[in-house]
Write a structure and sequence with these properties.
Layout (H helix, E strand, L loop, with lengths): L1 H21 L3 E4 L7 E4 H50 L4 H4 L16
Antiparallel strand pairs: 1-2
Length: 114
């Protein structure tokens, strides 16, 4: 596995070197009120890529913290519901209320003749 990682890293590094060699032309970047900044094209692309990755990482951390808060709230709700369920399970079931003998059931009242 270590050899595979080293090979992949070497291929990526060689690809970046080739990319840098092919895109070594200087470009002017205007940032703010200052004059233009002269950078090689590959460096401008690399900086833009890294800035995008940092912004995406920051946004993903914000989402992660929101989801952790939601998980905490759902766990609290689950615990409360489990407590309620356990208390309902412990309640005594009165047999007289759940099963009545036929003689205990009051007869229907006779309807009057109109």
């Amino acid at each position: 596995m270590l050899i595979l990682k080293m090979i992949v890293t070497l291929i990526i590094f060689l690809g970046l070197l080739f990319f840098a060699n092919q895109n070594s032309t200087d470009v002017s970047i205007y940032y703010g009120m200052k004059g233009p900044i002269q950078l090689p094209l590959f460096l401008a692309i690399l900086i833009s890529f890294l800035a995008g990755m940092i912004i995406a990482l920051f946004i993903s951390y914000i989402e992660k913290f929101k989801l952790k808060g939601q998980i905490r709230a759902l766990r609290r709700e689950k615990k409360a519901m489990e407590g309620e369920l356990n208390s309902l399970r412990r309640m005594p079931i009165l047999e007289s209320m759940t099963q009545r003998h036929p003689e205990e059931i009051p007869p229907d009242e006779p309807k009057g003749i109109v």
